[in-house]
DNA sequence: CAGGATCCTATCCGATACTG
DNA sequence: CAGTATCGGATAGGATCCTG
């Protein structure tokens, strides 16, 4: 997709139907960019992690949301799940090729935001619901 | 929340302090990856658009959410807003340098998802034998 | 340790009505 | 055309308890 324009004057072309329909890509994007999904994916870029490691890595996430987010990502084939039937049980999560593929632009997005905020001196600025 | 007092350049070695603190980058990421934010940003990559053009471009979005999303993006300096006091009034939106900067990884993310889904044969139409 | 089940609240978001 | 204000249903998400 070279550009994202959907404003075809006569509407003869449907190249960009992602915006127009409930394309499955939209669901996938929603999962990836869900509140916690992006942090899980970025966290797993450096190394595979166990459940509690993820929980401690992503501060503020509840066990419920971590579990739920992981299940969605596994279902989307972005994350794999390995269970070792030891005592106590160990469950490890890691990125699939697809997950690693998507992790790159997510990391890039995050880096660019961080970089810009540093340049701004991280001024609070007007926010939603504040000010 | 949003105390904004963690910006102390202590170690600066910590690559992902954002995970551990109440970093403003997290708020920004939330806005950018909000349900509609990503589509607004991608839509505006090709050209500046007026309110109703955006609404028609991003199918399924309500005026309320478009307005709300745009306000957040403008407040975050990702999108600019130009009002022309004509009759009827015209309001045009476009990407700032920062917005354009973030649009790239978002587009890339979207492209990679679309590409993968195409490989998976998820698209409607000629169906491959998937078992 | 890993995570399911439940309850409950906050918020998201669409629909509607109204303004300039 | 380009919004704002309000209401209400749907959903996300946190806290807690419980299991293997």
Count all strands of chain A and give the number. 3
Oligomer: homodimer
Biggest interface between chains = A-B, 47 and 57 residues
Q: Provide the β-strand percentage band of chain A.
A: 5-15%
Q: Give the C-level CATH assignment of chain A.
A: Mainly Alpha
For the CA atoms, what is the radius of gyration of chain A? 18 Å
Structural class of chain A: mainly alpha
CATH architecture of chain A: Orthogonal Bundle
How are the secondary structure elements laid out?
2 copies of one chain form a homodimer.
Chain A lengths: L16 H4 L3 H9 L4 H10 L2 E2 H7 L5 H13 L3 E6 L5 E6 L1 H23 L12
The structure holds a DNA duplex (20 and 20 nucleotides).
Describe the protein:
Two copies of one chain form a homodimer. Chain A has 131 residues and is mainly alpha-helical. Chain A has a single domain (15-120), classed as Winged helix-like DNA-binding domain superfamily/Winged helix DNA-binding domain (Arc Repressor Mutant, subunit A). Chain A is 50% helix and 11% strand. Chain A has helices spanning 17-20, 24-32, 37-46, 51-57, 63-75, 97-119; strands at residues 49-50, 79-84, 90-95. Chain A has a three-stranded antiparallel beta sheet with strand order 1-3-2. In chain A, a hairpin with a 5-residue loop joins β2 (79-84) and β3. In chain A, α3 crosses α6 (97-119). At the A-B interface, α1, α2, α3 and α6 of A face α1, α2, α3, α4 and α5 of B. The structure holds a DNA duplex (20 and 20 nucleotides).
